[in-house]
Design brief:
The complex is a heterodimer of chains A (about 375) and B (about 325). Chain A is of the alpha/beta class. Chain A has one domain: Thiamin diphosphate (ThDP)-binding fold, Pyr/PP domains (Rossmann fold, 3-Layer(aba) Sandwich), CATH 3.40.50.970. Chain A is built from 16 helices and seven strands. In chain A, the strands form two sheets. Chain A has a five-stranded parallel sheet with strand order 1-2-3-7-6, with helices on both faces. In chain A, α2 runs parallel beside α14 and α7 runs parallel beside α8. With about 325 residues, chain B is an alpha/beta fold. Chain B folds into two domains: about 180 residues, Rossmann fold, CATH 3.40.50.970; about 130 residues, Rossmann fold (3-Layer(aba) Sandwich). Chain B contains twelve helices and 14 strands. Chain B has a seven-stranded mixed sheet with strand order 3-2-4-5-7-6-12, sandwiched between helices. Chain B has a five-stranded mixed sheet with strand order 9-11-10-13-14, sandwiched between helices. Chains A and B meet through α7, α8 and α16 of A and α3, α4 and α5 of B.
Chain lengths: ~375, ~325
């Protein structure tokens, strides 16, 4: 570990230079605008060519699993959008294009670690073992937060208020530190969240308390209609320096780089070296949600150009060219993804509205008599 | 909570000192209880409520935070997920507002969102209300915001001994409890033994009387007792009810008072519109309309920003205003 890193005072960019490079080269499509500036950690180029040490300590089976999970997640995402169009889900926020950022980071965590997500981390949730149908109860409108067990899965409830979950992660990590656990907490958030006061308060407190925390920003370029370039004039990963801990910029569409950066941050956290801020550069291919029409504010050409940086195509090319998998494996993954999507569809459609008494059952651990009277009134008892 | 109540002798307590003792006893009982906020550690709190606790229990369990009210509340939520119990302090009433998003969206709702798999044993201490010739933003009455938020319990002590009881109940409660501590009463004294007492949701009658019932809480309790004493000189016997718990309200006590006196006057220093008096008046009508002999009266702050120190005596309910309201009800 370099001394500068241990001190936490010098930004940690995993040895990459400060001068931006357009890795796709002059002939390739332009990178998304918010990727400008410091070159991110990148192990596999957008065309699938290795450009760094791709030996991140994963076995061939684990490497194949990364692709399998990304294919399954994307297929489910498209199924969810279809379910919303068919009236089976309420508003649904898609994550197409962010599979590598979510799966690469979530797979770097251990079973004792804990995640506080936003509302767009279905792919990460599945890595943590959250049941997809239970997760989708949220978007079906049958429960808030999600009915899965956060403690059993190490995955907190879905969080819609922007950046508030980061403070929860600080508290959870503080609890882990006080219990001297060999574990850490990871908070997901987006580029827009870094403009919220709660991001600042949480990051600052994390630095002061020295808690085992990974602050994982998926900078997907868009906060509904506001581009990341209008969200902040600086580079998000650099904020870490002001809070006294390392920051990393990583190509969020390079699943191996995301995994490596998160693994390192997790190791630092567990070793008692405090928080790390990771800015994962990715791109929101879809609209903010099914209730949003991105055509009102975003040029389709920008989306087409961003597809050249797609995380799945890139990784598949690399995996096949390295001989870790063949086309038969890819086909099997796609078949599994179709079957899984159908299974989840059936589960979602079978999810009924909860009984009315559930409105009252968990508001208080120790409900008062007055509260019980209101409950009885509502239930006609 | 009661088993561990200190068997101390009868002695004189200030509200600040009694609250301090409640924190000390709770910290001693529960090794997973944490106390944190701005200036609560080294300095012992701007009102000395946490005085000496860091020295006694260590900086891991009693600690200062950056000036980050939302961060403090959010941290308490995360600690609950990790199995810790928290007492957090917002230094003054108006400075609790930066944390409203965390309190309303998460502290209050989280247990329901996770179907009870995580309890939120969080006590939020807020030095509140006026009467100390404070600067602006140091004299507000934020109770309606919290009472209107489903998932919270809200209590207000009016005296030293009851401050101990209410804070101990708040900390022991598995649900989030907001305790609004009347700054104007921190140095008021009461003699007795600290211990168990009525829990959250239970009010108390501090003075008997059958002509009318004055319903109040916090620092106004002392003012109402003074008014009742004065009215007794005129032959009007007013009961004084200390609500103690604003959410939930003690409906049974309100009903009894309405039935036995027929006249209810609600007193608080919060602005009038949608203040606690609005809720109490409605409940009294629902519970005992046929027993009322006069409209429910209310003596409150005005619907204006809390005034500067030199005017606060004209803003907060006075003995004279309370007397007038009671006499109007009696002569209705």
């Amino acid at each position: 570990m370099p001394a500068s890193l241990a001190s936490g005072l010098i930004p940690y960019a995993l040895g990459v230079s400060d001068e931006g490079v357009n890795v796709s080269g002059p002939a390739g499509p332009p990178e998304p605008a918010h990727w400008a500036g410091t070159a991110p950690l990148r192990l596999v180029a957008p065309d699938g060519t290795p450009v760094g040490d791709t030996d991140v300590g994963l076995s061939p089976e684990q490497l194949r699993d990364l692709l399998r999970r990304m294919i399954v997640a994307r297929r489910l995402d498209s199924e969810c959008i279809a379910l919303q169009r068919q009236g089976e889900l309420t508003v649904y926020p898609g994550f197409e294009g962010q599979e590598a950022a979510q799966i690469g980071s979530a797979l770097a965590l251990g079973p004792d670690d804990f995640v506080f997500p936003t509302f767009r981390e279905l792919a990460a949730a599945m890595v943590r073992g959250v049941d997809a149908v239970q997760y989708l109860h949220y978007h079906r409108g049958t429960w808030h937060g999600g009915p899965y067990d956060p403690r059993a899965t190490g995955f907190g409830p879905i969080c819609i208020p922007i950046a508030t979950q980061i403070a929860h992660a600080v508290g959870h990590a503080l609890g882990q530190k006080l219990d001297a656990l060999d574990a850490c907490t990871l908070a997901y958030f987006g580029d827009g969240a870094t403009s919220e006061g709660d991001f600042h308060e949480a990051a600052n407190m994390a630095g002061v308390f020295g808690v085992p925390l990974v602050l994982f920003c998926q900078n997907n370029g868009w906060a509904i209609s506001v581009p990341a370039t209008q969200q902040t004039a600086g580079e998000i990963w650099r904020r870490a320096q002001g809070y006294g801990f390392p920051g990393v910029r990583v190509d969020g569409n390079d699943v191996l780089a995301v995994y490596a950066a998160t693994r390192d941050a997790v190791a630092r956290a567990r070793e008692g070296e405090g928080p790390t801020l990771i800015e994962a550069l990715t791109y929101r291919i879809g609209a903010h949600s099914t209730a949003d029409d991105a055509g009102r504010y975003r040029d389709d050409h920008e989306v087409d150009a961003a597809r050249a940086f797609d995380p799945i195509g890139r990784y598949r090319t690399w995996l096949l060219s390295e001989g870790h998998a063949d086309q038969g494996f890819v086909t099997a993954c796609e078949q599994e993804a179709d079957a899984f999507a159908m299974e989840v569809r059936a589960g979602v459609i079978a999810t009924a509205a909860p009984p009315v008494e559930w409105m009252f059952d968990w508001t208080f651990a120790a409900p008062t008599e007055a509260f019980q009277r209101m409950r009885d009134e509502a239930l006609g008892e | 909570m009661s088993e561990q109540a200190p068997a101390s002798d009868v002695r004189e307590w200030t509200l600040s000192g009694a609250l301090n003792q409640a924190l000390r006893d709770s910290l001693a009982e529960d090794p997973r209880l944490l106390v944190f906020g701005e200036d609560v550690g080294r300095s012992g709190g701007v009102f000395r409520v946490t005085d000496g606790l860091q020295a006694e229990f260590g900086p891991d369990r009693v600690f200062d935070t950056p000036i980050s009210e939302a961060g403090i509340a959010g941290t308490a939520v995360g600690l609950a997920f990790a199995g810790w119990r928290s007492v957090i302090e917002f230094e003054f009433d108006a400075f609790s507002y930066p944390a409203l998003e965390q309190v309303i969206d998460h502290v209050a709702k989280m247990r329901e969102r996770v179907r009870g798999r995580v309890d939120l044993p969080i006590t939020i201490r807020i030095p509140s209300f006026g009467g100390i010739r404070g600067k602006e933003h140091h004299g507000e009455s934020p109770e309606t915001y919290y009472v209107h938020t489903a998932g919270l319990k809200v209590v207000v002590p009016s005296s030293a001994l009851d401050g101990y009881t209410l804070l101990r109940h708040a900390i022991a409660d598995p649900d989030p409890v907001v305790i609004l501590e009347p700054k104007a009463r921190y140095w008021s004294k009461e003699t007795g033994v600290l211990g168990d007492g009525p829990g959250i949701g239970v009010g108390r009658v501090l003075r008997d009387g059958d002509d009318a019932a004055i319903v109040t809480y916090g620092a106004m309790v002392a003012t109402c007792l003074e008014a009742a004493e004065s009215l007794a000189g005129d032959g009007v016997h007013a009961r004084v009810v200390d609500l103690r718990s604003l959410s939930p309200l003690d409906d049974g006590l309100l009903a009894t008072c309405a039935m036995e006196t027929g006249r209810i006057i609600v007193v608080h220093e919060a602005p009038r519109t949608l203040g606690m008096a609005a809720e109490v008046a409605t409940r009294v009508m629902e519970l005992a309309f046929d027993h009322l002999q006069a409209p429910v009266g209310r003596v409150t702050g005005y619907d204006v920003p809390y005034p500067p120190a030199s005017l606060e005596a004209r803003y907060r309910p006075s003995v004279e205003r309370i007397r007038t309201a009671v006499l109007q009800a009696v002569n209705y």
